[in-house]
Design brief:
Layout lengths: L1 H18 L3 H14 L4 E6 L12 E3 L3 H9 L7 H7 L4 E3 L3 H4 L4 H11 L5 E7 L7 E7 L6 H22 L11 H11 L4 H8 L3 H14 L5 H10 L8
Antiparallel strand pairs: 1-2, 1-5, 3-4, 4-5
Length: 244
């Protein structure tokens, strides 16, 4: 019964995100939901100056205003240890993990110490896949170091849903690409996931030549010069799923 309730709530939340008309509205939905779950501070978005994100990018957060002003003035986004760890490929980490703390420079340790003075202590960060120019991640911060693991799991799922929607909204005036046919979508999506043509052919019950023909037609239809560009445009236009 509890699993069914959680699923219904998550579906309702996802629907609210899809209905958001602006980034500000989406941020409000995201922030209020996570705070109600018990997270004191939350952050989500690209690794940029939170007060001056690039065009076609976003940073959501409810960190103390004084800290954000200081973070921006000192240009900490260029060396922030949380950003750097996420960019190095660490999938998920707590800000107190020895593996996270050990390689930090003196300046990065100072950033963490300064953040603690503003109540940013018990944080956990996870990386996010993104079609935006900069890398992205999300952080969940609590006043209680013993926050239930289930809350973090739900919080991460919420962050993924909101990030995907925000990314869609950030791709300003995305070009309108021709619609792919079913087999073209299937072949291009499997190609984007890392499968070679022979594996795609076996999985779909097609010949290798047919797979290559579908991918080539998708490339031409999208006006792309390479398979990589074709996959990126298909993702940006919502015709295939983002690469996880």
């Amino acid at each position: 019964m509890r699993e069914s309730l959680i699923s219904a709530e998550m579906i309702s939340f996802a629907a609210a995100c899809d209905a958001a008309a602006t980034l500000d509205e989406l941020e409000s939905i995201w922030r209020e939901h996570l705070v109600e779950m018990g997270f004191t501070f939350v952050a989500l978005g690209v690794h940029a100056d939170p007060l001056r994100p690039d065009r076609a990018a976003y940073v959501f957060q409810n960190y103390p205003d004084e800290w954000i002003a200081h973070f921006s003035t000192q240009r900490y986004h260029l060396v922030d240890p949380v950003y750097r760890a996420a960019e190095a490929g660490t999938v998920e980490f707590a800000w107190t993990d020895p593996e996270f703390l050990q390689p930090l420079s003196w300046r990065q340790r100072r950033i963490l110490n300064e953040a603690r003075e503003f109540g940013l202590r018990h944080g956990r960060t996870h990386g996010l896949a993104s079609m935006l120019p900069r890398r992205a991640s999300a952080s969940l911060v609590t006043s209680d170091p013993d926050m239930p693991e289930g809350a973090y799991t739900a919080g991460k799922l919420i962050n993924v849903l909101v990030h995907h929607r925000a990314t869609q909204m950030c791709i300003a005036e995305a070009p309108r690409f021709a619609e792919l046919k079913r087999r073209e979508r299937q072949c291009l999506e499997l190609c984007a996931s890392g499968l070679v043509d022979a594996d795609i052919a076996r999985g779909l019950g097609l010949s290798v030549a047919t797979v290559r023909r579908h991918i080539e037609r998708a490339r031409v239809r999208l006006g792309a010069s390479t398979r990589i560009q074709a996959a990126a445009r298909a993702i940006a236009s919502g015709q295939i799923k983002p690469i996880s």
